[in-house]
Write a structure and sequence with these properties.
Length: 337
């Protein structure tokens, strides 16, 4: 394989000049400097030379790499999130390194150790606060290392993103109240402590406004959704596609289909269209992930941490027929106005 010294000799420049041209450090402002840099790059390309990424990082003083950490890739939301994050990072000139940790605190700690030893400039994770290594997270946040939580607000001082239900939940409650319901159950899933508390607060206020008795439940297991169905409730707002499957299967078994609003995003909505729902609360997942990348890149440049709230919207059953497939590969949907 050709060396940098041989490339410099063929280009008629010094080894240092060749290194600068291939590392992207050369500004190429002067015509003669640009001509030398182009000559170096052309000769390197002709001989199949590829500079070391580690060496480039050392010269630039930046790895231009982000770490992405998710539990699994067989989940539609997480798989699409990873693909979107990689796309967004790539558009900004960043590469990504992926680690799959399978809900394990030990694997999560190992993944973070790997990222930090690899020199990533920031980490994006979908892991819950309980899963993250406390000592390491306190160390990272103490020195301002960019970490972004896609799993909503964290117990640690890091940036995060959550769906904003301030409009969608009241709209859903009003819709159910207008259908004559006097009691509505909101069933959320554990792992989003702060966001669940805020959602419950919005839900309670909405029910009070529309004269409805509220009941909020936090499920720790999908099977609790089936237990909820066995109670034969009249109106439910339910989070989670896996919970919805168990809930609807039990409802079907009992021959009882309550008025149900499901909470989905554009990547999981395909499953919702098979259920007899009276409406959906639709989260904007792609926007959340792209905003996460934008935020972490600003933090790398010194900006402050932020919690991003991305508005969700309520879509009643009579309007879900307007949902059209835009990209079957990613199961993305949009409203056709």
């Amino acid at each position: 394989m050709i060396t940098i010294k041989e490339i410099a000799r063929l280009a008629g420049v010094s080894a240092k000049t060749a290194e600068r041209a291939l590392s992207g450090v050369t500004k190429d402002k002067r015509c003669d400097a640009k001509e030398r840099a182009d000559r170096v790059r052309r000769i390197a390309a002709e001989h199949g030379y590829r500079p070391s990424e580690l060496a480039l990082s050392l010269r630039r003083g930046s790895s231009r790499t982000l770490g992405i950490m998710v539990d699994i890739l067989t989940d539609q939301f997480l798989a699409a999130s990873v693909e979107t994050a990689m796309d967004a990072a790539g558009r900004s000139g960043y590469k990504t390194s992926l680690q799959i940790v399978r809900f394990s605190p030990e694997r999560t700690a190992d993944a973070m150790e790997f990222f930090l030893s690899s020199g990533v400039e920031g980490i994006i994770g979908s892991c819950t606060s309980e899963q993250l290594p406390e000592a390491m997270m306190n160390s990272l946040t103490g020195r301002g290392f960019p970490y972004f939580s896609l799993c909503g607000r964290s117990e640690y001082e890091v940036s995060s993103a959550s769906p904003d239900y301030k409009q969608a939940l009241p709209d859903a409650v009003k819709y159910l109240a207008d259908r004559g319901h006097k009691r509505i159950i909101l069933a959320l899933f554990k792992g989003k402590k702060y966001d669940n508390a805020l959602s419950a607060e919005i839900f309670d206020a909405s029910c009070k406004k529309y004269g409805v008795i509220p009941e909020c439940r936090i499920h720790s297991d999908c099977r609790q959704a089936a237990e909820l169905a066995a109670e034969r409730p009249e109106a439910v707002i339910l989070y989670g596609k896996y919970s919805m499957r168990m809930y609807m299967d039990k409802c079907s078994e009992l021959g009882n289909i309550p008025d149900t609003v499901g909470i989905f995003n554009e990547w999981t909505l395909a499953a919702a269209l098979h259920f007899p729902l009276c409406g959906v609360i639709l989260e904007d997942a792609e926007h959340s992930v792209r905003q996460a990348i934008a935020q972490i890149l600003t933090e790398i440049r010194g900006a402050a941490r932020q919690h991003l709230q991305i508005p969700a919207r309520f879509i009643p059953a009579e309007s879900t027929g307007k949902l059209k497939v835009v990209d079957l590969a990613n199961q993305r949907f949009s409203i056709q106005e």
